[in-house]
Design a protein that fits this description.
The protein is of the alpha+beta class. The protein contains twelve helices and six strands. Strands 2-3-5-6 form a four-stranded antiparallel beta sheet, with no helix packed on it. It has a two-stranded parallel sheet with strand order 1-4. Helix 3 runs antiparallel to helix 6 and helix 6 packs antiparallel against helix 7. The N terminus is likely disordered.
């Protein structure tokens, strides 16, 4: 865009060619965020790369590979890239409208005149031939000087639309990274939870066998055996549900990576560790800096600038336009002397056009453009407020998930202690196997609760990085 401006400045200086980039209406923003324990200062030299590839903080090579594949081949992102190229081409077209145009025309005509019309009778009287040829070639140049700034405004609108398309691409990438990471975390959580459910189900099945062996001692043991079998069956049903959820997550991740649903099945089917956010912090800039980085805010600002430029174009259309024109060519009835000096013709001039009556169309178009500019201003304000709310909520959620994880870790320690004690009593013959199985199930339940807290903390970290505009 800068080179185009320089070229125009060297070629001609007229009104409307050097319009300043307009500033959007101001939106009130806080000076700082709510103080949190899970945020860190942003170091300009070291944290920028961390923000660009923030998912590397999980240290999961499979997740890194999935996101790289998604950014390269995801179809929604590819569509957004194509729209960027379309917008850039339209911007070049808008720039071309401000430059002089030059065309060439070639014409060859054979004509036979009427003997009975006035021209034919005169031609017959003077002995002019009835049949004749006409050959011509002409160069036609025209240049709209854009004295009203209409074409300059149109180019500004095209440039702003290009910027909006570029930010839309960045926002698509930001959201794609987030949904890929969230889906991957849910996959790994479900796989680990499935294993724990199977472990608890096996424990209930053992309890059922022990209770069945004692059922001859009375009705109470028969009831206990039936209850244990019921719990085992219910857990096996949950395992089947989670098997389905695992398949769906793998299919979705394959689609996000731009592949067929089962392409990533061999890589993702085996259980693996959940991406951990145990010691993570969120590098938090000042509100103004985060707003300036978020692609949705930048896109909304670009759309306002495009609307403002369209308003300027609509206003300029109501003013006169000045066009320079020139014509240089040759014409002859014979090709033999077509390029001789006597066959040349030229013309040059200027035309001034001022709209006088358009039935109110131009005024209505200006009013519509003004309303569109106001609408984009409100949309920008709404986008800023939503961004502020999203950052505050995401950081708050990450902080709360960190606290919950700590509490779940303490619960797991207590459950593990209780399990060790019951196991010792069982080994010493002080207690039967059933209390130990109950303690084992309680420990597995605590592990499930901790797994859920860990997954929620990792998901909260994904949402926090997404909220602060981190990404490519």
């Amino acid at each position: 865009m800068t080179s185009r401006r320089a070229l125009l400045a060297c070629g001609f200086i007229v009104a409307g060619c050097a319009a300043e980039r307009p500033a959007p209406p101001p939106v009130a923003t806080p000076a700082a965020w709510t103080p949190r324990t899970v945020v860190s200062e942003v170091d300009a030299s070291s944290s920028r790369e961390e923000l660009r590839a923030w998912w590397h903080s999980f240290g999961d090579a499979t997740l890194d590979e999935l996101i790289d594949a998604a950014l390269l081949a995801n179809l929604d992102v590819a569509s957004a890239r194509a729209r960027v190229e379309q917008a850039r081409a339209l911007g070049r077209a808008a720039f071309g409208e401000r430059l002089p145009s030059l065309g060439v025309g070639l014409q060859a005509t054979h004509a036979t005149t009427s003997r009975n019309d006035a021209l034919g009778k005169v031609s017959s009287a003077i002995g002019a031939p009835r049949n004749f040829n006409d050959f011509s070639m002409a160069f036609d140049a025209a240049w709209d000087l854009d004295v009203s700034g209409r074409l300059a405004a149109r180019e500004r609108a095209a440039d702003a639309n290009t910027a909006a398309s570029e930010e839309e691409l960045r926002d698509r990438q930001r959201q794609l990274i987030a949904i890929t990471a969230l889906t991957y975390i849910e996959l790994r959580r479900t796989q680990s939870d499935r294993a724990l459910l199977a472990e608890i189900a096996a424990s209930w099945e053992e309890s059922a066998r022990l209770a069945a062996a004692r059922a001859r001692g009375g009705v109470d043991h028969a009831v206990e055996s039936a209850r244990a079998r019921s719990e085992a069956h219910a857990l096996r049903a949950q395992v089947a549900v989670e098997d389905e959820a695992i398949e769906i997550a793998i299919h979705r991740l394959s689609i996000l990576a731009g592949d067929a649903p089962t392409v990533w099945q061999p890589r993702l089917a085996s259980e693996a560790a959940l991406p951990s956010a145990a010691h993570a912090t969120v590098p938090l800039d000042a509100p103004v800096a985060i707003l300036a980085r978020r692609p949705d805010v930048r896109r909304s600002e670009a759309l306002w600038r495009a609307a403002d430029a369209r308003h300027a174009e609509a206003q300029a259309a109501r003013w006169p336009s000045l066009t320079l024109g020139a014509l240089l060519g040759v014409a002859s009835t014979s090709t033999g002397n077509l390029f001789s000096t006597d066959s040349r013709f030229t013309s040059a001039g200027a035309s001034l056009f001022a709209p006088l009556f358009e039935g109110g169309r131009l005024r209505a178009e200006a009013q519509a453009a003004d309303a569109g500019r106001s609408a984009e201003a409100k949309a920008l304000e709404a986008t800023v407020l939503h961004a502020l709310e999203e950052v505050e909520s995401a950081i708050a959620a990450f902080e709360q998930r960190a606290r919950e994880r700590t509490a779940r870790e303490s619960e797991l320690e207590e459950r593990a202690t209780a399990r060790r004690l019951t196991a010792s009593r069982t080994a010493a013959g002080i207690a039967t196997r059933l209390p130990d199985l109950e303690a084992q199930r309680a420990l597995a339940d605590a592990r499930r609760a901790l797994l859920e807290a860990q997954a929620q903390q990792s998901e909260a970290l994904v949402r926090a990085f997404t909220a602060i505009g981190a990404g490519p």
